[in-house]
Design goal:
This protein is mainly alpha-helical. It contains 20 helices and four strands.
Length: 471
């Protein structure tokens, strides 16, 4: 009995789980692992990162009653390596889930004869695209970060990794997305799956955004045109049910890639930091003062994207993700309006100013945007059109985690040609008066536009080197 028990004990196999040697045997195992990648996108900590990294350094969000010191420091442009918002672990967890699929899914071909190469390639395309999207968030937020393309599946595989230059990471993203585009499916057969899982169109949307960031405008337009010409997407028309159809219900004809919060699974985490009595963030003064300025004409028009749809004009509560608790409004990585405005921005940079203005007009007509927020740059005025598009993106994507990245992308264009204009405007609108001079001095160093590597990461990984600004 002792011999038998010891032998069984020393196998060290869990009695209530499954070990890797028994996994990765069937196509069902692969599908489950891929769905696990999507599940990790719904993590509350990850969504908090994606929202805060893209919004609170911009000019549309202000401090609420529940804001903590680390969040206030970012608004004050006083970021230290110990700031908790620079913790990237939730993003790297998603990346490792994707790497695990990429590393282990191919071996299922030898175990399950019903599993085909085309099915494997399609699953790998999903993992590659999700990993690319996560790295794109990291590049825009931190610039140079560790590039890990192999999974960590045991303590023996832990390794110290140095940072890779942003250019190398962006090149890897482009390579992976092109591969994913070739193998991703066009449809899964249902709206929820088509919007909630990676399709060929998802890869094209991410690629368009990456090319725009890299200032490869012709390539950006090419990817946007693939989506536009596909006939699969359209703007949800203006109607009394516009918000419900696009945001509250989700998976509309406008959606391209949405994080699928729903009543049968997971609620979104926004109520806790946007709606609760001690909310962390509220809509900033510029939201109603400039972007959604009231129309005082005899026959006023109301921009459907502003009051109530995005924020409450009395309390300044951000309502885009609903005031319900729980709420199941989706997080939008990409929707069709984004593709149109990315194309407009790229067109403005390649002497196609009228095409850009026509797109902005189309977006504004859907929104019934009032004349007070209209602008009239000349079709040859690339800078003026870019400013107009930047303002229009603020209205269209209010509180969707895009504002800071939009500002930074415009500021860094042509070797930071527009640094003063963009960051002076941000500082004047969003930074407390007592901190404005300090913030202006800080923002003149372009390294400050990116977060520091969290001090815990520096302590753990001696191969990491801190962002120069924070040394």
């Amino acid at each position: 009995m002792i011999s038998s028990s010891c032998g069984k004990y020393l196998t060290l196999e869990p009695q209530d789980g499954i070990i890797r040697q028994e996994y990765w045997k069937t196509k069902e195992d692969v599908k489950a692992a891929v769905i696990g990648c999507y599940s990790s996108l719904l993590d509350a900590g990850l969504i908090y990162n994606l929202f805060t990294w893209g919004e609170i350094r911009g000019d549309m969000v202000a401090a609420g009653a529940g804001i903590n010191a680390d969040e206030q420091d970012i608004i004050n442009v006083n970021v230290l390596p110990t700031n908790s918002l620079t913790n990237w672990s939730a993003v790297y967890r998603v990346i490792n889930n994707c790497n695990t699929v990429i590393d282990f899914a191919p071996q299922v071909l030898t175990h399950d004869k019903t599993f085909t190469q085309s099915s494997l390639d399609a699953y790998l395309a999903e993992a590659l695209a999700i990993r690319s999207l996560m790295y794109f968030y990291l590049v825009r937020s931190f610039r140079d970060v560790p590039l890990k393309l192999k999974s960590t599946s045991s303590d023996a595989q832990l390794e110290n990794l140095p940072k890779s230059p942003a250019a190398a990471i962006l090149a890897q993203i482009v390579t992976d997305l092109k591969k994913a585009e070739l193998n991703a499916v066009s449809t899964y057969g249902t709206p929820a799956s088509n919007k909630g899982r990676v399709t060929k169109y998802t890869t094209q949307a991410i690629l368009a955004d990456v090319y725009l960031w890299m200032e490869q405008y012709d390539n950006c337009i090419l990817e946007c045109d693939k989506l536009i010409n596909s006939g699969q997407f359209t703007l949800v028309p203006h109607s009394s049910g516009w918000y419900t159809q696009l945001f509250y219900n989700g998976n509309s004809a406008e959606g391209i890639f949405e994080f699928q919060f729903d009543a049968s699974g997971t609620s979104n985490p926004f109520n806790a930091f946007l709606v609760a009595s001690k909310k962390k963030f509220i809509a900033g003064p510029a939201t109603s003062g400039e972007f959604f300025a009231p129309d005082e004409s005899p026959t006023p028009m109301v921009d459907i994207r502003g009051e109530d749809a995005a924020y409450n004009p009395t309390s300044f509560t951000i309502t885009k993700y609903s005031i319900d608790n729980p709420s199941y409004v989706h997080w939008f990585a990409y929707r069709y309006a984004d593709i149109l405005l990315m194309k407009a921005e790229a067109c403005a940079q390649v002497n196609r100013g009228q095409d850009a203005l026509d797109i902005v007009t189309r977006i504004r007509e859907r929104a019934t945007a009032p004349v007070i927020t209209a602008e009239s740059p000349d079709a040859s005025d690339a800078a003026g059109i870019s400013d107009y598009i930047l303002n229009e993106r603020a209205r269209e994507f209010a509180f969707e985690g895009k504002r800071w990245f939009d500002l930074l992308r415009n500021a860094k264009r042509n070797n930071y040609q527009r640094l003063n204009e963009i960051f002076n405007r941000v500082v004047e609108r969003a930074v407390p008066a007592a901190r404005q001079q300090s913030a202006l001095a800080i923002y003149r160093d372009v390294d400050s536009h990116y977060f520091p590597i969290n001090q815990n990461e520096i302590n753990t990984d001696p191969a990491l080197e801190q962002n120069n600004f924070y040394k």
